[in-house]
């Protein structure tokens, strides 16, 4: 029988705070509790949703959505100005709690992290017990809830943390991992975006079991290098270590299009939507770079990037968009269809460098 899972199991927890920014605001302002709120810029500011409360999510409002779309879905939305200094302070409290249990902590953002508790400081025999203790301590210290996923690798732990939100705890034990993956819808796979899921559906891949039927060579043929990743995760294989020193020196935003863009004005319009989201992302981190990069992927999966480094820090939407449009002008578009577009900034002062994760958007799905 084919060996699917690694014979040596680690104990990995993925902790994800529940609607973090919005929950902090509801904690600190009781008048917001039970109401649909979003943290982020208003439609008049051409802003985007940084976080949505669960009351807002019931209307289909989610993070990274343009505020103008969010308010159409929920006219009673309350827009709250971000308080990043407060969120960072709470995040530091939470990270200190993580380090009470293990030094192998890999932050992904202010509100989530991987923990390797194969050996833990508390001496607890079960990763589930560790996750329970962490959740309880977070609530005691911050009055906020977190969801946790527990499994044998980062891929499974990440999926598990989203299975029982909010305030959930979900375990995928080694002996159940293969069946869990086999039954999991392909669009629930972490790392499979909307466009890729649609392509997989066209190929008859709807579940992990379907994905497992494909050879690594065939997956590479259809999806490029990432096909190797799909081949492994279909078998529960993820050897990535929890990296306590993980550093990303860029902040980015990108979106894949359900229908490829086939003219320059459409691409220009898409950049116009990405620019304010990137600005909000930088504001969230209070981190501004001097290098701006435009990333573009054609329908044939050819990918190109164009960058420019300025003598000043890029801090406003107008500059982001102006530089992005100049970079776009040097990119061949005539006769080419565009399936993905991205913007990122880098070149931060050393004092500002922290851990960052690329923000993937679906701005152009159906609205």
- Main beta-sheet strand count, sense and barrel state: 5 strands, mixed
Radius of gyration: 21 Å
Please write the CATH class name of the largest domain.
Alpha Beta
Number of domains: 4
CATH superfamily of the largest domain: DNA polymerase, Y-family, little finger domain
CATH architect. name of the largest domain: 2-Layer Sandwich
Query: What is the mean pLDDT?
Result: 87
Strand content: 15-25%
Low-confidence stretches: 351-367
The count of strands amounts to 13
Sum up the overall morphology in one term.
globular
In DSSP terms (H or I, runs of 4 or more residues), the helix count works out at 13
Order of helices and strands: EHEEHHEHEEHEHEHHHHHEHEEHEE
Structural class: alpha+beta
Tell me the helix content.
Answer: 25-40%
Distance between the termini: 47 Å
How would you write the strand order of the largest sheet? Answer: 5-6-1-7-8
Write down the oligomeric state.
single chain
Q: What is the secondary structure topology, with strand pairs?
A:
Layout: E1 12-17, H1 20-28, E2 37-40, E3 49-52, H2 54-57, H3 67-73, E4 78-80, H4 84-99, E5 105-109, E6 112-116, H5 127-142, E7 146-151, H6 154-161, E8 169-171, H7 174-183, H8 194-202, H9 208-212, H10 216-223, H11 226-233, E9 250-261, H12 264-285, E10 291-298, E11 303-309, H13 317-329, E12 338-346, E13 359-361
Parallel strand pairs: 2-4, 7-8, 9-13
Antiparallel strand pairs: 1-6, 1-7, 2-3, 5-6, 9-12, 10-11, 10-12
Helix pairs in contact: 4-5, 10-11, 12-13
């Amino acid at each position: 029988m084919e060996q699917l899972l690694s014979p040596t199991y680690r104990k990995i927890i993925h902790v994800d705070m529940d609607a973090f920014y919005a929950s902090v605001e509801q904690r600190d302002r009781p008048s917001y509790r039970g109401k649909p709120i979003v943290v982020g810029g208003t439609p008049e500011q051409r802003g985007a949703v940084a976080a949505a409360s669960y009351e807002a999510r019931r209307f289909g409002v989610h993070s990274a959505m343009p505020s103008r779309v969010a308010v159409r879905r929920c006219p009673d939305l309350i827009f709250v100005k971000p308080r990043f200094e407060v969120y960072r302070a709470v995040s530091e409290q939470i990270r200190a709690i993580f380090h009470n249990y293990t030094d192998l902590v890999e932050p992904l953002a202010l509100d989530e992290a991987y923990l390797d508790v194969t050996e833990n400081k508390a001496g607890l025999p079960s990763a589930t017990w560790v996750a329970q203790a962490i959740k309880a301590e977070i609530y005691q210290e911050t009055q906020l809830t977190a969801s946790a996923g527990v499994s044998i690798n980062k891929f499974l732990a990440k999926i598990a943390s989203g299975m029982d939100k909010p305030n959930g705890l979900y375990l995928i034990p080694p002996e159940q991992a293969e069946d869990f993956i086999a039954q999991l819808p392909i669009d629930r796979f972490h790392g499979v975006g909307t466009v890729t899921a649609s392509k997989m559906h066209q190929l008859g891949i709807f579940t992990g079991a379907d994905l497992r039927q494909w050879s690594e060579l065939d997956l590479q043929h259809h999806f490029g290098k990432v096909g190797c990743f799909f081949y492994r995760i279909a078998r529960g294989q993820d050897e990535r270590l929890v990296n306590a020193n993980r550093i990303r020196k860029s902040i980015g935003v990108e979106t894949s299009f359900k229908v490829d863009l086939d003219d320059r004005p459409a691409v220009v319009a898409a950049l116009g939507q990405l620019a304010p989201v990137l600005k909000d992302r930088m504001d969230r981190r209070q981190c501004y770079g001097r290098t701006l990069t435009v990333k573009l992927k054609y329908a044939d999966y050819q990918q190109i990037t164009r960058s420019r480094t300025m003598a000043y820090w890029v801090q406003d939407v107008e500059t982001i968009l102006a530089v992005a449009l100049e970079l776009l002008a040097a990119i061949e578009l005539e006769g080419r269809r565009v399936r993905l577009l991205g913007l990122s900034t880098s070149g931060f002062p050393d004092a500002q460098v922290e851990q960052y994760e690329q923000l993937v958007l679906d701005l152009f799905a159906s609205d």
